[in-house]
Specification:
alpha+beta
Length: 738
């Protein structure tokens, strides 16, 4: 190719930074045939005065011909015997010199199948292609950058390696896929970068990488090149066992944690290693099965809960590097603790460095604010009808399960995704194509997400935070459901918190708040959540919700925790409630650990520890959670005395049932008869009123004998001493008769 065959448009496009296919102009080209074959190398380096080229064998060619004063050069030579990566040598006007490999020597790498699958919304591991990936090409180390920006006029990768100059590394558009890519030599792990995007609107935007594996610590917002390979996991046994497990029939007792405020050191966050040293033994000692971690993905504000995500593929930088988080999770698995992530596919923030108006258009979000904005949250709503957006989210879920060995995803704000009129008044929303309020595109996205993650990772948990009566949340998609395997039981939570917060004298008028959940208990697979949402914004901590004096508050708390642990459904408790935190949760400060210097708070913690162990060691409480045969009322109609009793059965295991008896009044019962399913000796398993937990010790005594007195529809019964504001559990002894 001769110099005069390079059009003025191509030259202007390169030097003005508006060329969408720089590889067609820059880099190596071969022209002509036979004896007319020529090699042409073009390079653009702003402010360069001269340029030469050094071949792999050290031989130098040049000087290169200047095509434009801005720094566009060309070398036109006869073909050499071999072609290998070459280096460009620049001398600048200030006398400085630089030598680097030519990024435009390297051909585009994303395959047609990759681009097709991404465009169809089905590239499940697109995070291995888009973003920034350390690689070696023909012996040259560097980073392959790729980003989706379909309406951009130009995309450049800028960073610490090119003085943040968008003229230096123009990326190459891949046909009509909307994907831009460029392999940049001599860039590596730890380098800072962003994408400089000339939008369709003519505005230049500097954006963090949506697929970045690491980001700068706030307030800086650059992405960081990071390789996630090489960490040596030691949890193969855990992962194999998880794949064979059925969480529906397993114990699930979750400790919800906000890592920035669980514990601090002189106001500073603990890093993942310190959290591993302190949080993991604590959770293990208290016999929880899982940790649910808030704010795992990168977000800009410390004083937040982590739901304004700006780095969906980047681990929160406040607590360390990606490998530090991996090590923390590996240590959790070694201790027998699963890790659940709070995942936020319902909305994203407006921050100008992140996803909003990414390429100058409404790319990840809807353009119509009636579909594209949550005005009360100040956030954008994903456009679930766009294949590439669905791909971004589904792949993100797989990414955390894949690279970080996450054991479950708690999906935030599902109700806001399901309904087009969520938190909107008349005229503020657009009906679906059938005239309804359901967000059909979001529903299909949710189904796709659940199908895909369970296909790759059987045994994980997919948990919907869903507060409405939307049908089939935990039904498989093939059966018309959404495909989650668990749903938060917000109805149970609201009702029981209302009940337990009442003065006991009024509880007899509101018994349905305690019993109504059993009418729908098996319509979904439920988790009973006492989450962070219930102990903020004026709602008071769990302890201070309770009525009465201090002793009664603690007794009510012990009673309520026992009711949750023995009730059908998996369990979740937010940090601090396990030792009776008095003030509301404050995300900006440590939990008040000094309370454990006082017996009354240590005793609540002891109750939690022993109650969790009781749950963990009793399959009656979890193995038949999703079967109505696993639960049987004994007494649910004595509202006047606020006495309730039920049996929990292990249907498949055949273990003797456990009788759970609750007295929701401060009045001790010297003699309360309950019908029992078997005759003989019944032994006490647990007593929340034990003096060891700060109780009165009213019902001391380890066993009782049944009598042949009909009660509660059963031929056998026994007289029980029921403690005030207390829970007692019983089980038939070895000499019990059927």
């Amino acid at each position: 190719m001769n110099t005069n065959r390079l059009s003025r448009g191509d030259i202007d496009g390169i030097v003005t930074g508006k060329h969408s296919s720089p590889r067609s102009v820059l880099g190596f080209h071969e022209t002509g045939t036979g004896g007319d074959r020529r090699w042409v190398v073009r390079a653009y380096e702003p402010d360069a005065e001269t340029a030469t080229l050094t071949w792999a064998n050290g031989e130098e060619s040049g000087p290169m011909t200047r095509l434009h004063d801005a720094g566009l050069f060309e070398l036109n030579i006869a073909p050499r015997k071999t072609l290998e990566p070459y280096r460009l040598n620049f001398r600048y006007r200030d006398g400085n010199r630089q030598t680097r490999y030519d990024p435009y020597y390297f051909s585009p790498e994303l395959g047609e199948l990759d681009l097709y699958l991404f465009g169809a919304g089905n590239h499940h591991h697109i995070y291995r292609k888009l973003g920034a990936h350390v690689a070696e090409r023909e012996g040259v180390s560097g980073v392959l950058f790729a980003v989706w920006a379909p309406t951009a006029r130009r995309v450049s990768v800028v960073g610490s390696f090119n003085h943040w100059d968008g003229r230096r590394h123009l990326m190459h558009a891949r046909d009509h896929s909307g994907v831009w890519e460029l392999f940049v030599p001599n860039v590596g792990d730890g380098d800072l970068y962003k994408f400089e995007i000339l939008g369709f609107d003519g505005q230049i935007r500097l954006k963090s990488d949506p697929y970045a594996f690491r980001m700068q610590l706030r307030p800086d917002t650059a992405s960081i090149v990071a390789s996630l390979d090489g960490f040596e996991w030691t949890d193969s046994d855990w992962m194999e066992q998880r794949a064979q497990s059925d969480p529906l029939k397993s114990p699930v007792n979750i400790y919800e944690v906000h890592p920035g405020s669980w514990k601090q050191d002189d106001g500073e966050f603990l890093d993942w290693d310190r959290l591993g040293d302190e949080l993991i033994p604590y959770v293990s000692d208290l016999n929880y099965t899982h940790i649910e971690v808030m704010g795992l993905a990168e977000h800009p504000l410390d004083r937040s809960w982590g739901y304004q995500v700006t780095g969906y593929y980047a681990a929160n930088s406040r607590f360390g590097k990606p490998q530090d988080l991996m090590r923390f999770i590996d240590r959790c698995h070694a201790a027998g603790i699963g890790v659940i992530m709070d995942w936020v596919p319902a909305h994203f923030p407006r921050d100008d460095f992140a996803l909003a108006r990414f390429d100058g258009t409404y790319l990840y979000e809807h353009a119509d604010p009636r579909r594209g904005e949550h005005t009360e949250w100040g956030t954008k709503i994903f456009n679930y009808g766009r294949n590439e957006v669905r791909n971004f989210l589904v792949s993100n879920a797989l990414f955390w399960l894949d690279y970080y060995h996450i054991d479950g995803l708690r999906v935030d704000a599902v109700a806001s995704m399901l309904y087009l009129d969520y938190s909107r008044g008349p005229g503020e929303w657009v009906p679906n194509r059938h005239g309804g309020r359901e967000n059909l595109e979001a529903i299909e996205f949710i189904r796709q997400y659940n199908k895909v993650i369970f296909n790759y990772f059987p045994g994980v948990m997919s948990i919907a935070e869903e507060s409405t009566a939307f049908p089939g949340v935990t039904l498989p998609p093939d059966a018309g459901g959404l495909g989650f395997n668990f749903k938060w039981n917000m109805g149970w939570m609201n009702d029981t918190l209302r009940f337990i917060s009442m003065d006991p004298i009024h509880r007899k008028h509101h018994s349905s708040l305690l019993t109504f959940a059993m009418i729908y208990a098996w319509s979904e697979n439920f988790i009973l959540p006492i989450s962070h949402d219930e102990v903020v914004h004026g709602k008071a901590s769990l302890l201070t919700k309770m009525p009465g004096d201090d002793w009664q508050k603690r007794a009510n708390l012990r009673l309520y925790l026992a009711f949750m642990l023995t009730h059908p459904g998996k369990k979740l408790l937010f940090m601090g409630q396990e030792f009776g935190q008095r003030h509301e949760w404050r995300e900006y400060e440590s939990l008040p650990w000094e309370l454990l210097q006082h017996d009354e708070h240590r005793q609540v913690q002891d109750l939690c520890r022993d109650l969790n162990r009781f749950y963990l060691e009793s399959p009656q409480f979890f193995a038949s959670d999703t079967s109505p045969e696993g639960f049987e009322w004994v007494e649910c109609q004595d509202a006047s005395n606020s006495i309730y009793a039920f049996l929990r059965h292990d249907v498949e295991g055949g273990r003797p049932p456990i009788l759970c008896v609750f007295n929701f009044t401060p009045v001790p019962r010297e003699s309360y008869r309950l019908g029992l399913p078997s005759a003989g000796s019944w032994r006490r398993l647990f007593d929340s009123d034990s003096k060891a937990y700060g109780g009165s010790g009213f019902s001391d005594g380890g066993s009782l004998q049944t009598e042949e007195i009909a009660s509660h529809g059963r031929q056998q019964s026994a007289d029980f001493r029921l403690p005030p504001l207390g829970f007692v559990a019983w089980q038939a002894g070895d000499d019990a008769a059927g």
